[in-house]
Amino acid sequence: MEIIGDYGLILIFFVVAVIFVLQPLFLSDLGKLVVELDINVLKRKKLLLYRQIKELEMEYEIGNINDEDFHSSRALLKQEVSAIITALDSK
User: Fold this and answer.
1) What digits encode the pLDDT tens for the residues 32-90?
2) How many domains does the chain divide into?
């Protein structure tokens, strides 16, 4: 039984070493995937902010929001969109 245990231990060390050596070959695209996810998240946020601006303008036109709230909310949303566009352009 000792021989099976010894060979099992050797096999485990061998498999761990092979995985360690081959890891860069399979995980090299992981960084690209993370960047693509970030870009998709930023694009989604940008679209959501555009929708919020549009809804805010509709609410303002209906008369549900006063001038001061409209202008301050719209300015904040535009700043967020500008930050996202800048982040997208830098990637």
Assistant:
1) 666 677 888 899 999 999 999 999 999 999 999 999 999 999 999 999 999 999 988 88
2) 1
- Report the C-alpha gap between 33 and 38 in whole angstroms: 9
Domain that holds residue 53: 2-90
For tokens 């709230």, the residue is 69
pLDDT exceeds cutoff 60 at 1: no
| DSSP-assigned states of every residue in the chain | -HHHHHHHHHHHHHHHHHHHHHHHHHHTTHHHHHHHHHHHHHHHHHHHHHHHHHHHHHHHHHTSS-HHHHHHHHHHHHHHHHHHHHHHHH-
